[in-house]
Design goal:
This protein is mostly helical. The protein is 83% helix and 0% strand. It has four helices and no strands. Helix 1 runs antiparallel to helix 2. The longest helix is centred in the last third of the chain and has 43 residues. The protein is elongated.
């Protein structure tokens, strides 16, 4: 079995990396303007800016690893093509929601809840694939043992 380069995951990773750097740049600029280099100094706007950056960092790596595993499995490519851009859009919604002074808003809710749902779908798919593959391997091993002792 030849495993190809995970192009969908790579493209998604590139977009997420650029978004992460953009949010980091914005956070660094906000820190400089506020004169706060560690923490948020009690500045609510700086806290929201830092959380936009931090929330993406908390989610992007784990999702990207999951996307890559899904892509490398070769199973359910349409699911991958749906989940990758959906995750990026959801994280953008979340960042926009955290940009507002009133953080109880539809954009943040959609971004956050959607990310949880996407994570459950991705996680469930990976468990399903992992169990199916383990069963295939175990079944093959049992058949080989029965044939060759």
């Amino acid at each position: 079995m030849t495993i190809g380069f995970p192009v969908v995951s790579a493209a998604t990773g590139g977009v997420l990396l650029i978004l992460q750097m953009l949010l980091g740049f914005i956070t660094s600029g906000a820190r400089g303007r506020a004169g706060v280099w560690i923490g948020d100094g009690g500045d609510a706007a700086l806290q929201r800016t830092a959380r936009r950056h931090g929330n993406l960092a908390e989610n992007a790596g784990l999702f990207l690893a999951g996307f890559t595993l899904l892509e490398l499995s070769g199973r359910w490519p349409m699911l991958l093509l749906i989940l990758c851009p959906t995750f990026v859009v959801l994280r953008l919604f979340h960042a926009v929601g955290l940009s507002r002074a009133d953080t109880s808003n539809a954009a943040r809710l959609i971004g956050g809840a959607g990310t949880y749902l996407a994570g459950l779908v991705l996680g469930g798919a990976l468990v399903w694939i992992g169990v199916a593959r383990a069963t295939e391997i175990a079944g093959f091993a049992a058949a080989r043992g029965a044939l060759f002792g």
